[in-house]
Amino acid sequence: MAGKRPTTHPRVSEAQKAKWQDPEHRAKMTAAGFRPVTAEDHRKTPGKWSRLGVPTGYSRASVAALQAEAEQAADEAIRQLQAQGLSEAVALPESDEALANAALRELFVIAIAPGNASTKLRALSSLLAFTKAKPAERRAITEANNPIEAWLRSLAVEA
To answer: Does 46 fall in a domain?
Structure first.
């Protein structure tokens, strides 16, 4: 099936583990530059073995560059919000305003940086909820509450 990952075969895994236990095979593979990844390797450099924060199709380096650009764009967006008066420019550290500014900045970064589309849409929705008022409620216009009908009736009475 297309797009489906192949399953691992336990016998193959067991065979590879058995080969690495053989000193001759281990020496040959080590000489060729291979060595098995150990738990100690994961403890020394945990970020190397994790793809957390790296979307599919990106390398860690390319995401870091795009993340830096997104942070700069977010800083500029926050400055524009402060210039428009939607956010306080000077806020005391650890105050509600400072925390709100930090949250807005992170929402901008999430919305701009590469990542999951649904996460980006949720961030954009939160940004819109904070920065834009919801549209006025629509009312059903009936003959009784229609100002145009009332005006027309008043014209008919006058005539």
So the answer is: no
Element (H, E) at 134: none
Inter-CA distances, 64 with 55, 61, 70, 72, 104, Å: 11, 5, 10, 12, 20
Q: Is residue 143 part of a domain?
A: no
Q: Is residue 70 part of a domain?
A: yes
117-131 vs 96-112: helix crossing angle, rounded to 10: 140
- What is the C-alpha end-to-end distance of the chain, expressed in Å? 79
Structure tokens at 9: 């075969």
Domain holding 107, by residue range, is 57-132
Q: Answer yes or no: is 148 within a domain.
A: no
What is the token pair recorded at 121?
Answer: 């849409």
pLDDT digit string, tens, across residues 31-90:
888 877 888 888 888 777 788 878 888 888 899 999 999 999 999 988 888 888 877 777
74 vs 101: CA distance, rounded Å: 11
Closest Cα partner for 128 from 114, 108, 146? 108
